[in-house]
Design a protein that fits this description.
Elements: H1 4-8, E1 26-28, H2 35-42, E2 46-48, H3 50-59, H4 69-72, H5 74-77, E3 114-117, H6 120-132, E4 136-139, H7 149-159, E5 177-179, H8 190-204, H9 214-220, E6 247-249
Parallel strand pairs: 1-2, 1-6, 3-4, 3-5
Length: 250
């Protein structure tokens, strides 16, 4: 099967391997909720799947008069990007395709927010979207065999410019520090991370966010949904025991 470069560069369309903010116009991906797509949405670029490439190739084929539809009427025949969105993945809500249209207002969506990660790979995965949105991302690696809850809470509070080990003094609402939850899918450390996240949330009276929440916040251009205090109805938060993420292919 021909590569994107083989298909598109003869049409004078450059293909990039890495996302370059100044040059990328479209991100070609197999799903929506990945780092490069989040960056594209923040920067006012299109995200599309591989059917968009097929549509471009089709409208550049010459017809009987030797002229392609794209040559005869570019505006009318250029494929509509919003009809070729990547398939849905773990998005929290269903949105119409119009929600994925480029919106320059998103470029400062994370201004004033600092996101603290517990895992290196999750931090590296979301660093680009956060910094592109004018936010800050910090890594505080957590180790089940070494990390103490008090040390982590003290670090988070210090980043927030607060003292002590208690809840956020600003009520955990509005701009400020956000802790991103890390939960291994399986393995012996899975239960430890789940308990650690519950204890952090209780200590800070702060809802830890999931990686898949970023997309919806970006589409809605509202990062405030990522920073809120705990809600009474959260049944998964329990008190701890006393012993206790041109064209660009993807």
């Amino acid at each position: 099967m021909p590569s994107l470069r083989e298909n598109l560069e003869p049409l004078d369309i450059k293909v990039l391997v890495e996302y370059i903010r100044e040059s990328t116009t479209h991100v070609v991906a197999r799903k929506r909720n990945i780092s490069k797509c989040l960056q594209a949405l923040i920067n006012g670029k299109y995200i599309v799947d591989h059917t968009f490439i097929d549509a471009i190739i089709n409208v550049t084929k010459s017809e009987n008069d030797g002229i392609s539809p794209l040559e005869s009427d570019f505006e009318s025949n250029w494929p509509n990007e919003l009809e070729h969105l990547p398939p849905r993945g773990s998005e929290l809500t269903e949105r119409t395709s119009d929600a994925y249209a480029p919106d320059p207002a998103r470029q400062e969506i994370f201004d004033g927010y600092t996101f603290i990660f517990c895992d290196q790979s999750q931090f590296e995965n979301l660093l680009g979207p956060i910094t592109n949105g004018r936010g800050k991302a910090l890594l505080r690696q957590v180790d089940p065999s070494k990390t103490k809850l008090e040390d982590f809470i003290r670090y988070v509070k210090d980043v927030a410019g607060e003292k002590g080990l208690g809840e956020f003094e600003d009520g955990s609402e509005g701009k400020g520090v956000v802790v991103v939850r890390y939960q291994p899918a399986k393995g012996p450390a899975s239960d430890w991370y789940a308990d650690f996240s519950r204890r952090v949330a209780l200590s800070l009276d702060h809802r830890l966010i999931e990686q898949n929440e970023f997309l919806d916040a970006i589409l809605n251009n509202d990062a405030s949904v990522l920073r809120k205090p705990l809600e009474v109805e959260q049944s998964d938060i329990v008190a701890p025991s006393p012993s206790a993420g041109k064209f660009l292919p993807q």
